[in-house]
Write a structure and sequence with these properties.
Its EC number is 1.1.1.87. This is Homoisocitrate dehydrogenase. This protein is of the alpha/beta class. The chain has eleven helices and twelve strands. Helix 1 packs across helix 9. It binds 1,4-dihydronicotinamide adenine dinucleotide and magnesium ion.
């Protein structure tokens, strides 16, 4: 039965910056073809927030997410060095989206085949708390730079428990805790300690081991199949999730979900890609897959499955893909091809 607007689920849609509006438009088009359960409230953030509302994180956007507790978000540009603080980080803080889940799996076999990994990133603490300052020396106001990372035992235990519960729910067998407890003995040692404590509650159900982040980076290149789930502090999770994307074809293939206790924001792992913005060449698959995670979140796993099947058929049967995957399709052409697949099944 067609759902009527009355039965639709209100969700905030943030087109974002750079390639954001292009991949968001492609995603909305594909969701519409699936019979989207969502009714969108379009709001702005990032540079688009400044352009539309004079603020990189306008109050109306925050109010919309607060009301809907659900959002699909394009990437937001953050100025490097000076300038406003990341609207992504602020959104995660505002809604206490502590759990960032970034699954990757091979759709087009490339350098690696049969990759099926989930990275869980602690999303609020570590070095992202922005406790940073300069110490002036002589006439150099920026002679010394200092950053403080903050991890609490509660937050570490919370992300570990979240990861173990995710493993149980999704049939995952092993969690590898990524740290640098040999050097950052306190900041990441606490993360490891807390994870080990939590792991005891899951003994016999989910296995846990740990690895130092640099060794993990190398092992992910040599033998990624040894891993099942990775649980990381904020900064290591950020870095390794781009590396995971590289195992399955690049940043165009990597979705992400930010979960709090009552709010969830779905996005791609990639950023606003200013180098290709406005050219209709961006790969929309990351955001499409993120919308699949959003469909699962609202109990529409059947639609998510149809979406993933249509993407797989478009890539592997129709051989249509964007240029980052060595194809020639534009963003719009790729979206249209996925829509054709959905409409023919
Ligand atoms: P990026 O992820 O935007 O781009 C890195 C490289 O990957 C570029 O060469 C880009 O063209 C390519 N790429 C990314 N997504 C692609 C796609 N869908 N299809 C094809 N190619 C794609 O990272 P970059 O350049 O470091 O950051 C640009 C801006 O994005 C910065 O302001 C950064 O702060 C922001 N950013 C925002 C994120 C978010 O909103 N969650 C996440 C990461 C970065
Ligand atoms: Mg990143």
């Amino acid at each position: 039965m067609e759902s009527t607007p009355r039965h639709k689920i209100p969700a905030t849609l943030i087109p974002g910056d750079g390639i954001g509006p292009e991949v968001v438009a492609a995603t909305v088009q594909v969701l519409d073809a699936l019979g989207s359960p969502f009714i969108w409230d379009v709001q702005h953030a990032g540079i688009a927030g400044v352009t539309h509302c004079g603020d990189p994180l306008p109050d109306v956007t925050l109010e919309s997410v607060r009301k809907n507790k659900l959002a699909l978000k394009g990437p937001l540009t953050t100025p490097i060095g000076d300038g406003f603080r990341s609207s992504n980080v602020r959104l995660r803080e505002e809604f206490q989206l502590f759990g960032n889940v970034r699954p990757v799996h091979t759709i087009i076999p490339g350098r690696y085949d049969k990759i099926d990994l989930v990275l869980v990133r602690e999303n609020l603490g570590g070095f992202y708390v922005a406790h940073e300052y300069y110490i002036p020396v002589g006439d150099d106001p920026k002679a010394v730079a200092v950053a403080t990372g903050v991890n609490t035992r509660d937050a570490c235990a919370r992300i570990a428990r979240f990861a173990f519960e995710y493993a149980l729910k999704h049939g995952r067998k092993k969690i590898t805790v990524v740290h640098k407890a040999n050097i950052l003995k306190v900041l990441t040692g606490l993360f490891l300690d807390a994870a080990r404590d939590v792991a005891r509650d899951y003994e016999g159900r989910v296995e846990m081991n740990d690895i130092i982040v640099d060794a993990c980076a190398m092992q992910l290149v040599l033998n990624p199949w040894q891993f099942d789930m990775l649980v990381c502090t904020n900064l290591f999770g950020d870095i390794l999730s781009d590396q995971l994307a590289g195992l399955v074809g690049g940043l165009g293939m990597a979705p992400g979900a930010n979960y709090g206790t009552d709010t969830a924001i779905f996005e791609a792992v990639h950023g606003s890609a200013p180098d290709i913005a406005g050219k209709d060449v961006a790969n929309p698959i990351s955001l499409l897959l993120a919308s699949g995670l959003m469909l699962e979140h609202v109990g529409k796993g059947d639609l998510a499955q149809r979406l993933r099947t249509a993407i797989t058929q478009t890539l592997n049967t129709d051989h249509i893909c964007t240029r980052d995957l060595k194809g020639t399709a534009s963003t719009r052409e790729f979206a249209a091809a996925v829509v054709r697949r959905i409409e023919s099944t």
